[in-house]
Automatic annotation (TrEMBL):
Its cofactor is Mg(2+). The keyword Metal-binding applies. Its EC number is 4.2.1.40. InterPro entries: DgoD-like, Enolase-like_C_sf, Enolase-like_N, Enolase_C-like, GlucD-like, Mandelate_racemase_C, Mandelate_racemase_N_dom. Coiled coil: none annotated. Transmembrane segments: none annotated. Belongs to the mandelate racemase/muconate lactonizing enzyme family. GlucD subfamily. This is glucarate dehydratase. PANTHER family: D-GALACTONATE DEHYDRATASE-RELATED (PTHR48080), GLUCARATE DEHYDRATASE (PTHR48080:SF4). It comes from Halostreptopolyspora alba.
Amino acid sequence: MRIKEIVATPVAFHDPPLLNATGVHEPWALRTIVEVVTDEGLTGVGETYGDRAHLDKVRAAGRELVGLDPYALHAAHARVAASVGDEVVTDQHGLTGAGSNQKTVDAVYSPFEVALLDIQGKAAGRPVADLLGGAVRSAVPYSAYLFYKWAGHPGQSDDRFGAALDPDGVVAQARLFVEEYGFTSIKLKGGVFAPEKEIEAIRALRDAFPDLPLRLDPNAAWTPETSMRVGEALAGTLEYLEDPAPGIEGMAEVAPKVPMPLATNMCVVTHEHLPPAIARGAIGVLLTDHHYWGGLVRSAHVASLCETFGIGLSMHSNSHLGVSLAAMTHLAATIGNLNHACDTHTPWQDGQDVVVPGALRFEGGAVPVPDGPGLGIEIDRDALARMHEQYQRCGLQRRDDTSYMRRFHPTFEPKKGHW
Ligand SMILES: [Mg+2]
C-alpha cells in the first residue's frame, strides 16, 4: 500500500467571543482537515491548525509524502522535517506557547501521522487505540472549559451561552456545560480580569460545585509574585494552577511557593524544554497535545517521560472539530498515567462539525472511545464543503485575538506578566 494523494482542506466555523490574556476569539475559528488517500482505496484523516503559514507548510510537506508506505511513520517524520527545514513558526494558532523548529516540524507532521494511523487501523480492522497498545479506559473524561465572554460578537445578536463577565456569569456557564455534557471537572480560562476578580470566580465555582476538581489558567498573565499570592489564596481549592507566570524561569520561582501543582502547555511544548523544566522543578503537570507534540505515538512517548520524572498528565485543547476529538480520545484512552480530565473546546462548536454524527458523544463528561476501525469516524462531505466555503468567505488567514480586541478597545495590550 502506498500514499497516492494528500488533500488539505482549510475550514472555518463560528466561534463565540471567548476572552483570554491576548484578546478575544474572532467570529470564526480556522482548522485544516488533512486526508491521506492510498492506492488501495483506504483514506485516513487528520486535523490541524488553519492559519495560512501552517497550512502552506502542511501542503508542501504533504507533497513529499506521496509514494510512501502508510506504515513508515519515522520516514514520514523525516520527510516532513526535511520539507520544513530550519523554519520556526511562531504561535499563530493561539496560546500554545513558545515556538521552536522541533515544535514546527512536529506540528506539521501531526495531522499526517493521525491520518496514517487511521489508515493502518482501517487496514487492520482495529481502532487506533489498539495500535497504541490498547485502551486502559473505555471512555475519556473531559473538563468543562469555561471562558469569560461577551454576550455575543459586537454587531451580532447574543449567542445562546450568554455573557460571563463576573462570578455569577461564570457559574451559570458551568451549570449549562455540566447539565448538557455531564462534566465532572471544571477549568476556567483566566488572565482576563485582575487576579482578585478571578479568585472570586473560582470561589463561586467551589461553592456551586463543592465536589468537582477546579483549575485556573491565566496564560502567564501574572508575575511570579502575583502567582504566589493567588496560589496561597486558592490553597485547597485548585487541583492545579496552569501557566500562572511566563517561562520555565517564572514557573520555577512559583512552584515551590504554592500549595498546588503548576501545569503547563506554554513553557514546555517540545522536547528541548523538558530537561530544564525538570531540573528546576518548574512543573507538576504537563498538558500534552498531539497537535504540536508530533502526533499520537510521539505524545505517548512524552507521557512515558512524564511517568519517569513523576510529572502528572492532562491534555491541552485549542478550538477544534471532531477529527481532533477522536484522535485525542484514542490517545488519552491508552495513557495509563493520564491523571487529570482532558481539555476540550467541543461545547463551543455547538454542534458544528465535519464528522458524521453518532461516533462521538459525551456520557457523564467522558467520550467513549469510538470502536470502529481507525479513528472510528467518517467525514461528512457536505459539512466539509460548507465549512471550506465559510473559510473562503470569512477572509481570516490566521488567528489574531489581539487585533480583533483592539477594534473595540484600541488601547488593549496582551497581558503577559501583566498583573
Ligand atoms: Mg493553558
